[in-house]
Design brief:
By secondary structure, this protein is mainly α. It has 14 helices and no strands.
Length: about 325
């Protein structure tokens, strides 16, 4: 198990190095020069004020989404549950966008964005919980209602443009998901939030492991299933809200990362929760590096001065393809 953690940590380091080297404005040779203490003021500014915080935010957001997805799938005993398809992510996006459009929050007040995203995420999760009703234990029914809730919340987000059309840039940014332009302010907001709620999720590893075995078994072991599930959902919503407030909606990360973490580290959440954090960090960081590289190549091929492929577009495309593979290989999988 320690060998697997070391291998995954090495993968995270590789992805981090790739992201630092993939950005525009500095060649890899200049990056190494800056790391060695050289470079001029502009190069040091680009590296330390733009590239480095962007890297850290990508790692933190990926870790949040990986842990949130595993907590949701364990609490709901549903392999198709994830922030993206349970109303949590679209609700968080709606909350952040609405608060920004109404002038109640913005990039100059990031904490207000997190609060608004939390409120929206809780609203989306509660709406799914109400609609699913007695079918909450059925993965297919929960996924179906989750798609409906997500569609409704997405439509409401689009309607925000009617109230505040000047916020189009922010709406698109949160809907697609991007790490472009992230600075130290975003990281300083994200890391304590992620650390606090990630620790809370790890403390719930024992109850969550029992919930994966079924409510009857968990109740027989003396667990208050309703309280444990409520606390777990609160952790998942908070972690998702923190990630959404920092980078927007990164599609399929919270849905597929838990499957990888459980496959690599097993069903003991005391081990697989930290594993999910590492896998999520590697996925988002690696995807962001690939998105930056694709942006540079497309800009050269199409003769554009500047072209940006958001990381959310890449994770959504790759995640959709991987989801089809997972469903076709294990169509009847359940916890």
């Amino acid at each position: 198990m320690n060998r697997r953690f070391r291998a995954l940590a090495a993968l995270v380091v590789v992805c981090a190095c790739a992201e630092l080297l993939a950005g525009r404005g500095m060649s890899p040779a200049v990056v190494w020069d800056v790391l060695g203490g050289g470079g001029d003021a502009t190069e040091r500014h680009i590296f330390f004020q733009l590239r480095l915080p962007r890297l850290l935010v990508a790692l933190g957001a990926g870790a949040c989404l990986g842990v949130a997805g595993l907590v949701l799938q364990s609490a709901l005993r549903n392999p198709l549950a994830g922030p993206e398809v349970t109303g949590v992510t679209p609700g968080a996006v709606l909350g952040a966008v609405t608060a920004t459009g109404l002038g109640l929050a913005g990039w100059e007040s990031p904490f207000a964005v997190v609060v608004a995203a939390c409120v929206g995420g809780c609203t989306g999760a509660a709406l799914l919980w109400l609609l699913a009703g007695r079918g909450r234990g059925d993965p297919a029914q929960t996924a179906l209602h989750g798609v409906l809730v997500s569609a409704v919340l997405g439509g409401l987000t689009a309607m925000v443009l009617l109230v505040a059309p000047g916020e189009l840039g922010s709406v698109v940014q949160w809907l697609v998901g991007t790490t472009e332009g992230r600075v130290w302010q975003h990281w300083n907001l994200l890391w304590p939030w992620a650390l606090a709620w990630g620790a809370a999720a790890w403390l719930l590893a024992g109850p969550l492991t029992l919930l994966r075995c079924g409510d009857e078994l968990a109740g027989a072991a003396g667990l208050s299933t309703r309280r444990a599930r409520t606390l777990a959902l609160l952790c998942a919503v908070a972690l998702t809200a923190g990630a959404v407030a920092a980078v927007g909606a990164l599609g399929f990360v919270g849905l597929l990362v838990p499957h990888v973490a459980v496959a690599v580290f097993g069903a003991d959440l005391r081990v697989s929760l930290p594993g999910a954090a590492l896998v999520g960090a590697a996925v988002v960081c690696g995807s962001d590096a690939a998105a930056q590289l694709v942006s540079r190549l497309l800009a050269i091929a199409l003769d554009f001065g500047r072209l940006t492929v958001p990381v959310g577009a890449l994770t959504t495309c790759l995640g959709a393809a991987l989801l089809l593979v997972v469903v076709r290989r294990a169509p009847s999988r359940t916890f």
